[in-house]
Amino acid sequence: MYPSLEGKVVVITGAATGLGRAMAVRFGAEKAKVVINYFNEEQEVQAIIDEVEKAGGSATAIQGDVTKEEDVKRMIDHAVKTFGSLDVMVNNAGIENEVPSEDLSLDDWNKVISTNLTGQFLGSREALDYMLENDIKGSIINMSSVHQKIPWPHFVHYAASKGGVKLLTETLALEFAPHGIRVNCIAPGAIDTPINAEKFEDPELKKGVIELIPMGYIGKPEEIASCAVWLASSEASYVTGLTLFADGGMTQYPGFQAGKG
Ligand code: BGC
Questions:
Q1: CA distance linking residue 7 with residue 87, whole number of Å
Q2: Active-site residue, selected from the candidate residues 130, 158, 217, 253
Q3: Is residue 235 one of the residues assigned to a domain?
Q4: Ligand 1 near 251 CB (within 6 A)
Q5: Residue range(s) defining the domain that contains residue 20
Q6: Is residue 217 among the annotated active site residues?
Q7: Residue 91 near residue 68 (C-beta atoms within 8 A)
Q8: pTM score, two decimals?
């Protein structure tokens, strides 16, 4: 547990499912005040609020599209109006779809880049602006992926967006370090979340993914949430510009595991 997170105001984008939801609950367990941003999961929202509160935190929810400037501004305003501040911004909302690159439409490219990269820029910018103005030594956490490093055929838009998240994070970390604002990202590997549900329902596809993971299992959302609370806490007070890979070793060249080469 991280006592420094008690009472802190945390905005999490895309918090209605998957990693966002797991992070919301974990921040709740740290007694934080959590702003759950969702896109179109109205039906789910009350259950998530209840879960965060049951875990020990406070929660509120706000609909919003991370690709829209006015929606992102509304999220931050909602956090400040409801809970009085903003201490931690988790830019988590993300999408992916598989398309061979020669067939990838500009529309699909734009959708992924604007959600995964522009959305994180907007969330970071609005949070930084608030933190600077209010002299808050806050923390920004961007959600990257092992594919900020590992090329991913048929997902070129996704890989490009995550490569962008890496340098977005590092550049902002450098720019805002003098203000005591830390900017880091988490790069998960294959995690058991709805984004992967279809793939993991197919035993062959699942086996193929597990073969790429030296630790031999698909990660749990809670294993990513525990990275987020550490990064946001004062225990990581000297950490900025970091990409925290949480991937069971996926980025450590699993093909070489048997000592070949
Ligand atoms: C993607 C998953 C994928 C994993 C490893 C993640 O960023 O969201 O769909 O399984 O990377 O390839």
A1: 10
A2: 158
A3: yes
A4: no
A5: 3-247
A6: no
A7: no
A8: 0.98
